[in-house]
Amino acid sequence: MRILVIGSGGREHALVNALAESSRVQSLFAAPGNPGTAKNAENVELDAGDADAVVDWSAQHEIDLVVIGPERPLVDGLVDRLQENGIAAFGPTGAAARLEGSKAFAKAFMQEHGVPTADFRVFDAGDVEAASAYLDETGAPVVVKASGLAGGKGAIVCAMLDEAHAALERIVEDKDFGAAGDQVVIESFMEGVEASVFAVTDGEHYVLLPPSQDHKAIGEGGTGPNTGGMGAYAPAPMVNGPLLTRVCREIIEPTLKGMSDADTPYTGVLYCGLMLTEEGPKVVEFNCRFGDPEAQVVLPLLDVDLADVLARTAAGELRNVSIRAAARHAACVVLASDGYPVGYETGFEITGLEEAEQMPDVDVIHAGTARQDDGTLVTAGGRVLSVVGYGTSLEQALDRAYAAADVIQFKGKTLRRDIGHKAL
To answer: Which CATH superfamily is domain 329-407 in?
Structure first.
């Protein structure tokens, strides 16, 4: 197969690494990719937001499967455009991707189909007075969310009522998240432990990947603003067999059936961001793609030909496919730029990378990096690198990840030192 991976972040580097191990892959491309993907794929200068360019290039280069990493091109309907031109694509259509593209849609969908989630109300940006009055009525703690895509940063957990009003002002009046704040979701705060469960599905059949746990906040102990993710580990021990059975029966299956009944069958990977509450698992959010940094710890654990699984998914042939996971643990520590997620500088030289990559049972995944003309690797984003360690235990995997992370240096390097502490 000739496969094109769309995207330039850590998730896409992890996908390229996993796909490169497939005996079915003849040629592998990444658009636009990053310095890390260049090791196993040919980077291509394509704008993921330009559907015509992606379709034309894929047709000209006889691509057998397009794997779309980021959420924006999925929500914008890139899968639809590729399928219309006879090109197989892994991911949901634009209509199905609304489960991530609109939190307001997702919450209404869950309410209609009995999928457990937090109580909520949706307000248009023009109804800020009504939203403010609702906050006064419900009190705190509460979660205020921009409904649209906000790079994983649009959900604001508010312990106090004044924080909730400030969050509403940030979303609606200050437009901190742009058009994503045209609608606001206000939902009750859920107590519990967060976990991520991924289901790869052809719209009817599905298989589960190893459960994981992300760490969204920038600060240790879950403090500070939300980010795209500061670290993850897998498998998540709190997601045991009985709990997974509940997730399948109460969340994944009614969601797939509801999407199918609405003539918008969901294919690709359904990311279920969960809160494990005393009442059982509840949905915090759905995402329409592999998580980042969860992909960095989940994909390396799969004892399966990923290219074959993704191709079968796109072809609607997932029946009788099973997923096996290796009996090991993976832990990821994200190295970020100082100031992320609010504001940060880039262009700082990265050192120690080769030494870290040579350490046993360690992978270094690129996200916000760039290669200068003289070959120097520099920072080029908020989340710069994901350092992944593997081991026979979570503790061993974390030790290896942190040892390698400490070898890598760049000006303003920021990381959390408490990844995986809840599981330990």
So the answer is: Phosphoribosylglycinamide synthetase, C-terminal domain (3.90.600.10)
